[in-house]
Amino acid sequence: MIRRSREESAPETLKTSLDWDEMELWGSRRDLGYSYQYRNRRDWILEAAEKLVPAGGSILDIAGASGNFTLPLAEKGFDLTWNDLRPEMIELVQRKYEFGKVTFSPGNIFELAAGWAGSFDGVLATEVIEHMAHPDEFLVCIGKMLKPGGHLFLSTPNGNYFRFHYPRFSDCPDPSAFESVQFKPGSDGHIFLLDPAECRMLAEKAGLEVVRLVTMTNMLTRGHVKLGHLLPYLPASVVWGFESGASKLPRAVREKLHCQMVTVLRKPA
At 123, which CATH number? Predict the structure, then answer.
């Protein structure tokens, strides 16, 4: 993946995305907590996809944005389909592209899904489901696009984290009330936050098996409760050591201290 510098003559959307790239990929110290969080879940998802998708297999990256998951997997030899609601993001992904097979298919995934029935060995949905008014229908939609035995790689904020107070999907009597505000980017666009139990429940209803579910990224790693002030002064080894130690705590404690949830789901063969 090519590292692109910010160009003042570029469209504003691209300039903003390149600013995010500096934090997500290239070590900018502007918000180290965000950078650590992003690296944590990205590395986990990419490693899981490389292990579970057959060599050269087909992968759909839903809401692929600037291609930070699409491009490295394409470079590993997988057949990638990039998707996002914003077709203008294609230009940025193309600017960063080095090699590998990538097909661009912008648009609403619910409208595109019928043409992709049983098409993919793997689907990535990273930080997407919490922006959906109907996360249950989203999982059903993905299940239809997967080949038998295919895997969904999902990341989302952990609804059990002690600082989060968004509603649970199962507590909402009429999710359609949120349809007008769904698909918005950023944390302001979060509608429901799933906790591990609800994620398992929705997966089962969608006919998907939970292969692995992990919570990660404690409040130091993320820089919450003013701990972000310490991050510029702590060696990365200390931060990752603290993260590793927190992952060994009892599950009930981890689910309160970790702000992120990553999950692998499988469509039965």
Answer: 3.40.50.150
| Model confidence pTM above 0.90 | yes
Task: State which residues form the domain around 84.
Answer: 12-266
Query: Based on the structure, what is the number of domains in the chain?
Result: 1
pLDDT in tens, 137-180: 999 999 999 999 999 999 999 999 999 999 999 999 999 999 99
Q: What is the secondary structure of the chain as a DSSP string?
A: ---PPP-TTS-HHHHHHHHHHHHHTS---TTHHHHHHHHHHHHHHHHHHHHHSPTT-EEEEET-TT-TTHHHHHHTT-EEEE--S-TTHHHHHHHH--SSEEEE--S-HHHHGGGGTT-EEEEEEES-GGG-S-HHHHHHHHHHHEEEEEEEEEEEE-TTSTT--PPPGGG-S-GGGGGGGTT--SGGG------HHHHHHHHHHTT-EEEEEEEE--HHHHTTTTGGGTGGGS-HHHHHHHHHHHTTS-HHHHHHH--EEEEEEE---
Any domain includes 1: no
Task: Evaluate whether residue 115 is within a structural domain.
Answer: yes
